[in-house]
Structures are given as C-alpha cells and as structure tokens.
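Hi R.,

As promised, here are both runs. First protein below:
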Amino acid sequence: MKISIAKALFNSHSYLEYRKIVSDLLLDQKSTGAVQSEELTHYSSLNDTRMKRLDKTIAVPEEITTRLKALKGDYIWLVISEGWCGDAAQLLPVFNKMVLASGDKIEMRVVLRDENDELMNLFLTNKSKSIPKLIVIHKETSGALAHWGPRPKGASDLIIDYKKQHGVVDEEAKTALQLWYLHDKGMTTQLELIDMMIDIDKDID
C-alpha cells in the first residue's frame, strides 16, 4: 500500500491545480477521466460552477478550526476525485476549507481516479470505485491511517433509501442529493472528518 500511495502522491495536484485542470479541459469541451462524453462534460461544467460558489460560501466554524489546529500530528489528505463527479464537487471545497483552517497541520493532495487505478482499488466502496475518497496519511511515516467517503452519512442514507424504493439512482435522486448538500452547507462532512482526525490523533506520539 505504501508504494501505491507514494506513486499517487508523486503524481498528485494541489486543490488549486486540480481546479485548473478541470477548468482548462472544459475550454476544450472535455472532462477529466478515461471516458469522454457530452454528458460527462455537462456534469463537469455544472460542477465547476458549483465549486466556484462553494469556494466562496463554505465556512469552517471556530470550534472546528480550534480542534484542527490542536492536532498533534501532521497529515496529508490524499483525495481521489474526477471533475465530472457531483459528490466530489460538493465535498472537495469543504475539504480544502478545513485544510486551510488547520494552519499547517493538514496538506491536501488530489489525484484523478482513472489515472490511479492501483490506489483506487485499495479503497473500494462495496467493490465499486466510488469517489471522492479521502485517505488520511501520516506525514512522517507515509502510512495510511484511515479513509473517508464517498459521502457523509446523511447523503449516503438518502441514496441507499432511494435505491431501495426505486431500484435505480436517476436524475430525481441526483437532484434530491444536491438539495441535501445545499441545505447541509458542508457541516455533516466537517463533523465526521474532525471526529475521525481526533480519533486518529489520539494515537500519535
């Protein structure tokens, strides 16, 4: 696993670099990823607009900021993503704001799923390559300590319940999911991540 993580980190991007990759590809009517289609480009365009809005509006409460800055260890959040992924567009701006709020305790690096198959296969969700996936890495040892994703619990429950009722995840489900994210304002994700980080940090000398 350490070799797969090292390879991915070597080819990783900062959050701003990732945002630029997505935006630059859209100028050529393309999306990130191995598969190209009008649908994926359309989703990428919507997500680019969504991320610009969230970059301006997502806020980290003072209580969470204090807890982030109090972490004893130094960490990397290695995030697997793609520009067309609706959940990634909702969540990466939240990750980024938490990283910025941490001072220098956490660094965020982003890799594209389809370019990092070896890494993705280590962090499957129910045998599927669901993204985004956030992997917590200890900076000193380069070891993976935990992972999170692809969605916060409330969003996951919404999709699971919808699929039980309707058998598919269709546009109606996707709209309901986006509304869930809109009303949540990133708070569930922040609470889940800070609880995870504090739990990890207890074992750091």
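And here is the second one, sequence first, then its structure tokens:
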Amino acid sequence: MKTTDHFKRTIQMYLEQRAAEDALFAKNYRNPAKNIDDCVTYILNYVQKSGCNGFTDGEIYGQAVHYYDENEIEVGKPIQCQVAVNHVVELTAEEKAEARQNAIRQYQDEELRKLQNRNKPTAKKETKVEPSLFDF
C-alpha cells in the first residue's frame, strides 16, 4: 500500500501514546491479529466511503481506535493514494543523522560539479557578422 508514511507514523504515534495512558486499550492494541497497515487501510476505506475530503484529528483517531477495539472488522481493499497530514512528526536521532549526512553528501556533490565545470574550457561562440546592404 502506498499511503503517506507521515500519515501512518502520525496514527501509530497517537495509538502508542493512547496505549501508554489507557491500560484497557493497550490490551486491544497489542492484539497480534491487528497491525498498523490494516488500520490505515481501514481508515482510508472509511474516508472514501464517506465522500468527504477533510476530517478532524478526532474523527480519524477515533476510527483507528475503533479498528483495534473491534475483533471482527472488515478492513477493505488497500487504496493507493496520498494523504495530507498537518502534524509535525519528530524524527529520531538516527533519522536526523541520516538526513544530515544526505544533505552534506548532496552539498559536496554540488560543489564538486561546480569545481569541475570551472576548469573546463568553455566553447567560445563565433559571431558571424553578416554584411548589410549599406556595406556595398
């Protein structure tokens, strides 16, 4: 399924926080028959069936909790889409280090290209001067 990873991570972070605060939900959240991918598929199918384009956080989180609370629930078929999320997800220290290394590598490659292009001789354009009628 090609849903936005940001959306999936946001839902998962909410569910983990809720499980830490609510012992009853934590039991349902640890159900081995349930997983975050099916949860997201369930939410996307719910959204598609509703016909609406925008939802509050509470509505979406409520559907995620509903997925984990119900033992017999129809998930639906995976939907290929992009989901817009207006939450900022905190990166782990490892993800920050990886992003930093990628940025440094990209900067170094760009500077190397500039240096290589500076040393290359540029082809000089020859301008042809065409005679005008007044030259005769």
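A quick note on the second one: The chain is about 60% helix and 0% strand. Let me know what you think.

Best,
J.
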